[in-house]
Amino acid sequence: MLEQLDEIRTDCANRLIRAARDRRSPMHTPVIVTADIDARVMVLRAFDPASWTLRLHTDSRAPKAAAITADPRVAAVLYDKAAKIQLRLRGTARIEVQGPVADAAWATSTNFARRCYLGDGPGAVSQVATSGLPSEFEGVEPDDAQLLPARENFAVLLIEINEVDWLHLAHTGHVRAQFTRAGEGWSARWVAP
Questions:
Q1: Which of 55, 98, 137, 157 is the most exposed place for a label (fewest CB within 10 A)?
Q2: CATH of the domain at 11
Q3: Pyridoxamine 5'-phosphate oxidase Alr4036 family FMN-binding domain: from which residue to which, for each copy (predicted)?
Q4: Is residue 145 part of a domain?
C-alpha cells in the first residue's frame, strides 16, 4: 500500500492515464454525475495529467449537455476491484462542440463510433425498442460522406478535476486521502474512511 500522499496522487494520475488508454482497465468507464443529480456510465477517452482534465465524448443534444451548461459542477466515481481502490472526483465541466479539442476528438474516432451521432438525440421517445440509428446504419459502418450530418451532434465533455478522494479498501483497515487544488498545486490530507 502507498504511504505517502504525493505517491498516492501520482498513482491516481497514472490510473487515470491507463484508464483512458486501456479499454480493459476497470476505471475505463467511470460513473459521471451532473449537478442535476443524474448519473451515467461513460467511456473515459483521455486524461491530461498536467491540467487534471478528463475528456469524454457525448451527444450535444443529450440532456447532460444542457445540465452542464446550466451548472458545470460534476463528479465522477471510478473503482478498481482488484486493487480495491476507489476514486471520487469533483470538478468543473464544459461541453465543446466546435474548436480544436472537439475537432481532434472527432478526427480520431472510428466511423463506427461516429455513427452514434447520426440518429435521434438521446432521450427521444420511440414507439418501439430502438438504437435511435437510421435503419440503414444498424450494424453497418457508414463512410465519411454519410457521416457529415453526425458531426454537428458530436461534442466533448471536459472535466477539470478540483478534488480527488482516494479510498483503499483493506481487511486490515481502510485508508483514505483527499486532494484539493490549491492555486497551481494541490493540498493533501489523510482522513478517516
A1: 98
A2: 2.30.110.10
A3: 38-95
A4: no
**Residue 120 placed within a domain:** no
Expressed as residue numbers, the domain containing 106 is 5-114+154-191
**Mean pLDDT calculated for residue range 85-100:** 98
User: Alpha-carbon distance 62 to 64, whole Å?
Assistant: 5
The burial of 2, by beta-carbon neighbours within 10 Å (0-12 exposed, 13-18 middle, 19 or more buried), is given as middle
Residue 184 scores a pLDDT above 90: no
Model confidence, pTM: 0.94
Residue 122 covered by a domain: no
Quote the CA–CA distance of 108 and 98 in Å, as a whole number: 15
Residue 82 C-beta-side C-alpha neighbours within 13 Å = 5
Residue position matching grid coordinates 471510478: 78
Select from 68, 113, 92, 57 the least CA-distant residue to 163: 92
DSSP letter assigned to residue 108: H
Under the banding of pLDDT at 50, 70 and 90, the label for residue 183 is: confident
